[in-house]
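Troubleshooting: if your tokenizer reports a length mismatch, compare against these two reference records.
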Amino acid sequence: MATAKKTVSKKVVAKSAKSGKVTAKSVKGGSASGRKPAAKKATASANGGKKSAKSTSSKARKVLVRSNIPVEKKLKALFDLQEIDSKIDSIRTVRGELPLEVSDLEDEIEGLATRVTNFKDEMDGVEEKITNKKLEIKESKSIIKKYEKQQGNARNNREFGSLAKEIEFQNLNMQVAEKKIGEFKVGMESKSEVIDSAKKDLKERKSDLKHKKKELDEIVAETEKEEKKLSRKSTDAEKYIEDRLLIAYKRVRLNAKNGLAVVSIERNSCGGCFNRIPPQRQLDIRLHKKIIVCEHCGRILVDPEIASVQL
């Protein structure tokens, strides 16, 4: 009996060992199959990381290149940029208020055209109402004829009286309808006068717009090539300027009435707001070692000799 129990226990142990091997294999297989997509994901994320790293490194290189440019050249680039932008401003000043006038005329023409269309729609609606009222009158007349015929065949005074009342009611309806038609016609006459006036204004505005557009196109044709050339130069000059300086330059230009963000020293004063600059500050500006702004107006101050510096 003891030997039999031992053999049975050995068989159970052997079976459990085999099943353990099977589960171990399945676990190994599962982990291996799970590793492949994980590895793919890892490579994909690594590639994405490389691309982003490249883009950030290229941006960083540009920032480093701009930051490594000497202050003197940055000042020269700002000075040149201001001169180019001032020339572009003068070209646009030649156009004057023409672009705004053209835009206003286009808006006015659109408004007048909409107004005329709305009045026409209202007129169509009134005409439809008049037609309906005329149909009502026609119907009332046919009813009156029918009742008058029935009156001739009335058997007693009561029936004759009720028919007379119906005839009277239809006559009143006809009078109301005719009155409404008269009111509609008066309204149509006033609206037609307004439409004629709006059409006249629309014609005049279209003629004005045609002349203004022609004048503007002639001016644009004369200055377009020069403006494009100056715009390219402006873009080239911006390459030497750091982003923060460029943003500050554009902000000052936007707030300044004359569009000047970079000014030179004139008679010991700021060329923008004409406030006096202390001698020590003037010396710092002439050294071209750092970018200095006016304490009063915020404009970038440069030495007049900066024009001779080569980029």
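Reference record two:
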Amino acid sequence: MFNFKWKKIGIIAGLSLSLITAGCGSTAGNLQTKDNVSKELEYTITGTEPGAGQTEKNEEAIDAYDNLDGWEQEMSSAGAMLTQLSDAIDNEEAIVFSAWSPHYKFAKWDLKYLEDPKGIYGEEEAITTIARKGLKDEMPEAYTIIDRFQWELQDVEEALLETLEKDFEVVAQDWVDENQETVADWTEGVESVDGTSIELVLLPWDDAIFTANVAKIVLEQQGFNVTLTPVDPAIMFESIATGDADASLAVWMPSTHAALYDQYEGHFEDLGPNLDGAKVGLAVPAYMDIDSIEDLEQKE
């Protein structure tokens, strides 16, 4: 809606002409704003490492969206990308960057994902718990607790922000101390054990490291001897399927780990989501006046 400060105009014709002129000028201004944003961005998406899954998705998006014709992706590292994001926000400059949730950047800054009408980045995902066959019968106490693990996206992102200043183990212990009611719900009716060993495999991703450390603390409070083993996704699935490890809290479905899930399906037990709202895509600072990938302008 246009917001005009009117002066008295002597005739109706003059009033009508002023309305038409103002309306046309405002529309042109909006279009020019989007064009200026793309120019300010130098038609560049700020990405992370070459070969990363999201880096490849960004290239798919550049190919799929006609309005990204002529755009390029700047690749370096996640750390370098976050430095560029911080600098851009400090100066309130435009930036379009690779984003994923959970991540501390969404707790630190006011950011928004760009809509993806073509669905290149897929739908929201759920981080899912899987366990080896037989765990329920052999370690019912551990199985019950692991099955109850559930986190909120915002809680995890706020915790990850704290890991910039503290070790993951410390942040996990703080979270357990501050969420005793939740922990009590997880362990309600579960008997303690005496040093039973259990191994959780995890991905070397910050959110997985945090949730695994919370799980370790909670299980150890029940008397378990917990080993956390970081692995790559293929080993994560293989170790659970073969029974070499007991459980994992780090499976992203239905997209990120779909191929591995299908490969090993039937050889593990799916306990369902432990966190909803996980996502990957392109994002911008909230102060930028664009909402969709299609709002970006083709390079002339």
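Descriptive notes for reference record two:
- The CA atoms of residues 24 and 253 lie 47 Å apart.
- Residues 12-40 form the longest helix (29 residues).
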